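dumping this here before i forget
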Amino acid sequence: MFTDRIKIKIKSGDGGDGVVSFHTEKYINRGGPDGGDGGRGGDVVFLATEDRNTLNDFVYQRKYTATSGENGASNNCYGKAGVDVVIKVPVGTVIKDAETGRIMADLFKAGDSVVIQKGGRGGKGNARFANSRRQTPKFCTLGEKSEIKEVELELKTIADVGLVGFPNVGKSTLLSVISNAKPKIADYPFTTLNPNLGVVSLYHDTFIVADIPGLIENASLGEGLGHRFLQHIERTRMIVHVLDMAGYEDRDPLEDFAKINKELKEYSEVLGKLPQIVCANKMDGANAQENLQRFCEKYPDYVVIPVMAAIHENIGALLDAIYKKLKTLPKLQPLEFEPYEFEEADKTGYNVYREDDVFVVEGGLVTNLSRLILVDDYDSLRYMHRVLRTVGVIDELVRQGAKDGDTVLMGDIEFEFTE
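structure:
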C-alpha cells in the first residue's frame, strides 16, 4: 500500500482557565487576590523528515491533538503550558486546507516546519483584575478553546529526473542499473505500484531519479494507476521518456510516445513543457532499429539514446546526456503560493437581530465574551456592559428598539437590557 494523499484532523490545545483565589495565611486577615493565569495550549506543528517516504502512517491515525494548558492555581501560580504535537511528514509534503483547497505549506526540504494551528491562550486569574477601585475581584476568565480543523496532505516526490513510459517498457530495470535503488522487477505490466527513488552518482556529483508507475492512455482522466502518480512528476526538472523500441506486446513506440505526452499535457501545462530525453530501450529486438529510424525521422528535435538496460549497454551515454541537460536547468524550487498565516479567531465581529420579543447578539465578540464573563458576579457583568457599549452593541440594540427590561441573548448568556 502506498499513500500519497490523505485528509486528517488536527486540534491545538485549549488554554487553561484562570482561577479565583485569595491569599490565606495565619495572622493575615483579608489576603488579596492571588489567582493565577491558565497555561497556553500546545500548537500543531508539521515537520518534514527524511525518515519517511509515504503517508501510510496517517491511514491508521487520522486525528492529532496537542495538549491543553493547565488551569492556574492559588498563590499566583500560572498553569503549565500545553505540549505541542509535532506531526512528522515526508519531505515534499504539501499541506492544504481541506475545506478551501488553499495551500498552507510546502515542506520542501528536511527540517522545514510550520505551525498550522496555534494553541488557545490561557485565561486570566482574578489577581489580574485587582486595582485601586476593585480590590477583591471574584471573577476570572476561561481559556480559549480551539476548533478541530481538517487538512489534506499531498506528497509530491522531489526528484531531478522522472522516468515515464507505458508499463513494462523497462523503467524499473533502468533505475536499478543507474542508481542504488532496488525496485521490484518482473516481466509483466504494473509491477511498480509506487514511485521509487534512486540516487545517481556521476562525476563527483549526484542527482535523484524517480521511477513513476506506468501510465496508460487517459491517465489524466483518472484511468489506470498512473493518474495517482502524475503529481510526483510535477517536481522534476526533466523527464526521461522510456520507450520499448522493439515494439514487444504489439506496441508501436511512436504511438506510445505521442499518447504519454498527450496525457502529460492534459494533466498539467508544467508537465507538458518539461524537457525530455528519449531512452530507446530494448534495442536487441527484431524491429528495434527500424522503429528507431522511424522515430528519429518523425521527432528530429529530441535527444534519443538507444540502450539495452538489461545488459547495461550504452548506459554511460544516457547518463552523460542527462547530466549535461541538468546542468542547464534551474534547481528545484518549492511551490509558489501566498504565505500562510495563522488566523486568529474574530473577537470583535457581531450581528444583532430580533427574534420575536428577544434580541439576539451573535458573532466572534459573543464567543470571546462568553469565556470572560461570570453571570453571577457583579463586577464581571459591569465589565461586559462596558465592552458592549464600547464596541457599539448597546447603540445597535437601541436602534433596533430595545428598551430597559427587554431580554437579550448572547450565546449561553441571557440578561435584561439596560441602556
